[in-house]
Structure formats: structure tokens, C-alpha cells
TrEMBL record:
Keywords: Hydrolase. This is Histone deacetylase domain-containing protein. It comes from Rhodohalobacter mucosus. Belongs to the histone deacetylase family. GO terms for biological process: epigenetic regulation of gene expression. It holds the Pfam family Hist_deacetyl. The keyword Hydrolase applies. One of its GO terms (molecular function) is hydrolase activity. Residues 17-284 form the Histone deacetylase domain. It comes from the Bacteria.
Length: 303
């Protein structure tokens, strides 16, 4: 299994900023040092070009991000202070998702040690999301005729409002979000299918809702490609999650999603999305579960 990653995924943030920027390099280190992944499996992306960004985002917004001309209100809404390194890492992460999608189409499964920035809208960033990498990858692949029908399975605890809004009128893109009902964002554009869960939802109820939803989706929609946003913020220990998944429940979720897709012989793209565990180490370890489970499930296909 090939995975997009480069050192440029980490950009500097002010001391004490809540976003765990170092999780990207930390996850790479953990996978290669503790989980048996080989450095040769990781493919370094270049920056996504402006034409790709502008398949989703306005030229005005894309240029503001690149040139550093966002105003203070726009920066606050984005949740990240602008720097050139942030602009570079945002374009690198987008291309990482595009590359992962192409690698998944070739191999059956691939990933990006970033991505899933599902809150970014065409004209602005928000919720720690600068560009909507999934939406850009879908537009690029559909315009190039690599795929026609695409499914987004978004298990981040926060509803994928940007992705839902971008594909609101596109019947060939199915957006599914299972998230906290009372959590951010407070205005939630409708996905193709939304499952809003009450606070404190635990493993058993979460897995039941997710399994029922996957059955419903695949009974009516046959995608050429699946993007899986495996946010770890439904964990009970998450700073912002408000749900109550255990690590065992998280692993069960990963297995359910990935097995369901792989057994249907549909290529799948694995993306991190959000996660704010009590420590960087716990954040990294929780994110690594998705890749460990995916490796075990897909091993027969890569032997």
C-alpha cells in the first residue's frame, strides 16, 4: 500500500496552538518505526497547482492563501495563522490526496498522512481547513474521466459541511457524514446522508448506526472510488468530540468501513481528518489504527 507524505506537511504554529500539527511527522515516524511500514511505501507529493485548487475554490481565495493577503477575520475563521509554509503545506496535502486517489485506482487502496480537510468552502477556509482536498481530488479525477461516481465516507466527529455544500447539486458524488449532532459546525448543509449522533454515543450504538448506513448507501449507490475520512475525534478522550468511542470501538469502526469497501472491490483512499487526543503520542497512536487495520485487510491484495 502506497501512502502520500512529505516533511513539508508540518508548518510552524504559535506555541500552545490547539491544532496538533506535529501529528503528521509523528505518524510517519510511528508507522515506520513501530508498525512495520517501509519508507519506500511513502510517496512525496509536489504542490497542487492553482488550476487544481480552482476546480473547487475561487481564484480570489486561492491567491489570498498563496500570497498571504487574507484579512484577520478570514484568518480567524480558518483557525490557523497564515505563513508561507502553511500555504505550501496546504498545497502539498491537496496533491497528496490527488496522488493517493490515483494510487488507489491502480492498487486498490492508498492513503495520505494528511487530508480530510472537509470544512473548507469555495471562498474561505474554516475549522483548521485551508483547502478542501477531497473535493479537489474528486473534481480533478472526474474532469479527467478517471472516475464518474464517488462516495465520501466521513467519520470525523464534525459534519463535513464544506464537502456537503460543494457537492450539493452533484448526484454522482455521494456525501455521507456520521457526526456529533450538537458539535461544530453549527450550520450543517445537508450531505446526501447525514447521521447526527447525540452526545456520549458509545461503541455499540455508533457501530450499529454506521453499519446500517453503509448497507443503505451501497444498496443504492455504486461508486468507482471511496474517500474515507477516518477522524479520531469521536474518541471519548478527544478535546472536542463529545462522543464516547473507545480505542477498541475506533478499531472496530476502521475494520467495518475498510472491509466493507475492499470486499466490494472498490478502491479506497484513507485520510486522517481531525483528532485532538490528550497528547501528541495518543493522537498519533489513534490515527495509526486506520493504517494498521487497512494493511491487515488489504495484505492479500498486495502479496
Amino acid at each position: 500500500m502506497k501512502i502520500s507524505y512529505c516533511k513539508g506537511y508540518v508548518a510552524p504554529l504559535p506555541e500552545g496552538h490547539i491544532f496538533p500539527m506535529k501529528k503528521f511527522s509523528g505518524l510517519y515516524d510511528h508507522l515506520t518505526q513501530n508498525e512495520g511500514f517501509k519508507p519506500s511505501q511513502f510517496i512525496e507529493p509536489c504542490m497542487a497547482d492553482m488550476a487544481a485548487l480552482c476546480t473547487v475554490h475561487s481564484p480570489e481565495y486561492s491567491n489570498k492563501v498563496w500570497n498571504g493577503t487574507l484579512n484577520r477575520k478570514e484568518e480567524r475563521r480558518m483557525g490557523l495563522p497564515w505563513s508561507k509554509k502553511l500555504a505550501v503545506r496546504s498545497r502539498l496535502a491537496v496533491q497528496g490526496t490527488v496522488n493517493a486517489a490515483l494510487m488507489a485506482l491502480q492498487d486498490g487502496a492508498a492513503g495520505n498522512l494528511a487530508g480530510g480537510t472537509h470544512h473548507a468552502m469555495p471562498g474561505h477556509g474554516e475549522g483548521f481547513c485551508v483547502f478542501n482536498d477531497v473535493a479537489i481530488a474528486i473534481r480533478v479525477l472526474r474532469q479527467s474521466k478517471w472516475v464518474r461516481r464517488v462516495l465520501v465516507i466521513d467519520c470525523d466527529v464534525h459534519q463535513g459541511n464544506g464537502t456537503a455544500e460543494i457537492f450539493r447539486e452533484e448526484a454522482d458524488v455521494f456525501t455521507f457524514s456520521i457526526h456529533g449532532e450538537k458539535n461544530y459546525p453549527f450550520v450543517k448543509p445537508p450531505s446526501t446522508l447525514d447521521v447526527a449522533l447525540p452526545d456520549k454515543t458509545g461503541d455499540k450504538a455508533y457501530i450499529r448506526h454506521l453499519g446500517d448506513s453503509l448497507d443503505q448507501i451501497f444498496n443504492s449507490f455504486k461508486p468507482d472510488l471511496v474517500f474515507y475520512l477516518g477522524g479520531i475525534d469521536p474518541l471519548e478522550t478527544d478535546h472536542f468530540g463529545r462522543l464516547s468511542l473507545s480505542l477498541k470501538g475506533l478499531e472496530e469502526r476502521e475494520r467495518l468501513v475498510i472491509e466493507t469497501v475492499v470486499q466490494k472491490d472498490i478502491p479506497v483512499v484513507l485520510l486522517l481528518s481531525g483528532g485532538y487526543a490528550p497528547t501528541l503520542r495518543k493522537t498519533v497512536e489513534a490515527h495509526s489504527i486506520m493504517y494498521r487495520v487497512a494493511r491487515d485487510i488489504t495484505a492479500p491484495y498486495f502479496s
